[in-house]
Fold this protein.
Amino acid sequence: MFAIVDYDTGNTRNLKKAFDYLQVPTVLTADPQQLASADAVILPGVGAFAAAMDALKERQLVGVLQGLAQNGKPILGICLGMQLLFESSSEYGEHAGLGLLRGHVAAIPDDLNVKVPQMGWNQNDLQRPNSAFASIDAAYTYFVHSYYAVCPRAEIVATVEHGVTVPSIVQRQNVIGMQFHPEKSGQVGLQQLAAFKEMVSANDFSSN
Amino acid sequence: MIAKRIIPCLDVADGRVKKGVNFVNLTDVGDPVEIAAAYQQQGADELVFLDIAATNEHRETMATMVEQVSAQVFMPLTIGGGITSVADMQRILRAGADKTAINSAAVANPDLIRAGAEKFGNQCIVVAIDAAWDEQAQQYRVYTHGGQQATDLDAIEWAKQAVDLGAGELLVTSMDRDGTKAGFDAKLYQALGAAVNVPIIASGGAGNLQDFVDVFAETTVDGALAASVFHFGELTIADVKAALKESGVVVR
């Protein structure tokens, strides 16, 4: 059973549909016990960074998620959910994140002849050849975002180019993030969720 | 680099795709799930569903259809037709749509764009514009109600206003070209591209592969939408993408 963190964010239902399709049972919950007993925790997110952190704080989930990550619970953040895994963001002021990954979230510069938000399909470059997500290499996934992670190379699994180099998959052991929407990226997206499911089943996060 | 999008558009009434879609391997030419899955298989980048019978009753049916499609087909879905309130938007987004397209309702009540963008984010709000060249006024005029009613709005000015209010994307149909298969209206999209910086989807006039090559060569549009050439199998998405790739356009 995977737990999808319920904190009033947008894309939870489509994520659930993708896991249903992959025959992974999910529960939508904000209950610390349920999160702790799940095989993996999925952190979705659409909207603004500060509002999402506030929603997590209101539900007293910040410490819960940090504790779970430290105890080795697999955590997958998606889109804004991935950005929340980092130390901080400069979206409308400086805001602290969950600090599970090293790095900062910054605006995609809009003076580089690219449109912001990045909205559409972009081609991934694999940066970590032995990754469980290696099937992403050269494949297109669907993005909708205006901010991106600025982080050490050690955290990066794959990237796309959009004026700047945008990390599309990040991972540090059991903490994983996807900037694109796997639930909207066709077969390639489903393949990445299936790869995550395999990692959880095998309890093997060594590919970084 | 972000890929240019190729988008089939489907007319829906009573939860069924109308006008039929009769390319190979469909057992039921009107079933939205089956048609959406077939287009996903062909490599469509996004699907637009337009509710052409938008009464209250039909809106419920539309939400049910979106639920069903989004449980089987994992690609961006835009839903338009008959969306007149934030509550309508919410219902369709909850059902699994990624974007809602508003046209006549936005002209009648521009504040709907702002209200929707504030609640759901700009990326969820597509403003659809039907425009035709007015020779006398020397401008593109906006039409509403499925092209039936002329307005006083200049399409380029209206596009700017819609973006200022929070539209995250514009889906612009050239009524002069729609149904003609004479190619996309490059002049219209050049004017729009110079006026706004959100993604623009070109619609109306696609007849052959060269039309797609031309619209991306001559304008800065982010996507091209077509209906009949895809539905009747005259062109496949794969054909269009192969032709674009050959001409140096980045496609998925």
Notes: The two ends of chain A are 24 Å apart (CA to CA). The domain at 2-91+103-202 of chain A is CATH 3.40.50.880 (Rossmann fold).
